Amino acid sequence: MRKRLSSAIILLLIMLLCSELLAVPSFAAEMPDGALPVTVKLEGAVLPEPEETYLIRLKADYSAYPMPAGSVNGVYSLFITGAATASFPAINFSLVGVYTYTLYQEAGDNEQAIYDDTVYLLTVYVTNDEHGGNELKTQWVLRRDGADAKQDALFTNYYESVLPVSPPLIEVEKRVQEKKFTKTGDLLHYSFVIKNVGLAAIVKLEINDSKLGIKNMIVDRTSSPFMPGESNNNLIPLILLPGGVTLIAAALYLIWKRKDSVPD
């Protein structure tokens, strides 16, 4: 009896060993290379020269999750130069489960750029073959901020137009209508012509002329900017004050001298 029992136990052990040896191993699944394309799109009137390189990161939400080859501390860095499309290397999975990752762009250092800060959530489902086999299969879903599933990730970077800084530049011609005035109280029609010879529009002018007694005179062109190439004639009636004749005469002398025509 003991002999038969021992034989049965030995036979059972042999059968268990054979079943282990003949068992079909489970095949790992993968998210293949190129399965998740990432596109960088550029907008703006002036794009960078040379082209800028953008950094896209794929980060595992748990450090033990499988990652593409070349990852460091659960983060894979994908570099894209200019407006282009690239993809992540394959990710291999050996166990059934749900794996989550975060996909985002690192902001660059170009002060004229507005970098897309969209954050994507990648979820990978690893399951057994529904036909009862030992193969694993993967399905993945990419979502942006809770929106509908997407096939790829898109980052749109915008470059602001920067106009060259151009200081205001004007030419001024002074004119006096009257050529003879001798006493205090005479009315003097003083005018000056301003021409915008710069590249920028002018919205406000402050005029000072000590010889004619003009101080902090404001010409406000906010509602109608003084455009490049435009001339503006300003006529100012002045009453001669005591001592003003000498100042006016000196001013006229400078004006006429500037025209290379000094009157008698």
Describe it:
The protein is mainly β. The protein folds into two domains: 25-159, Immunoglobulin-like, CATH 2.60.40; 170-258, Immunoglobulin-like. The protein is 14% helix and 42% strand. It contains two helices and 17 strands. A six-stranded antiparallel sheet has the order 4-3-7-9-10-11, with no helix packed on it. The longest helix has 21 residues, at 2-22. The model is unreliable at 17-25 and 245-264 (pLDDT under 50).
Which percent range describes the beta-strand content?
A: 35-45%
Silhouette? rod-shaped
Q: What is the N-to-C succession of helices and strands?
A: HEEEEEEEEEEEEEEEEEH
Major pleated sheet? 6 strands, antiparallel
How confident overall, as mean pLDDT? 76
Order of strands, widest sheet: 4-3-7-9-10-11
Report the C-alpha radius of gyration, rounded.
Answer: 41 Å
Query: N- to C-terminal separation?
Result: 152 Å
List the helices and strands and how they pair.
Blueprint: H1 2-22, E1 29-31, E2 37-43, E3 53-60, E4 75-81, E5 84-87, E6 91-93, E7 97-106, E8 113-114, E9 119-128, E10 136-144, E11 149-150, E12 153-159, E13 170-176, E14 187-196, E15 204-209, E16 214-220, E17 231-239, H2 244-258
Parallel strand pairs: 2-12
Antiparallel strand pairs: 1-6, 2-5, 3-4, 3-7, 7-9, 8-12, 9-10, 10-11, 13-14, 14-17, 15-16
Summarize the model shown.
The protein is mainly β and 264 residues long.
Entry keywords:
17 strands; 6-stranded antiparallel beta sheet; Immunoglobulin-like; 2 helices; 4-stranded mixed beta sheet; 2 domains; 264 residues; rod-shaped; mainly beta; single chain
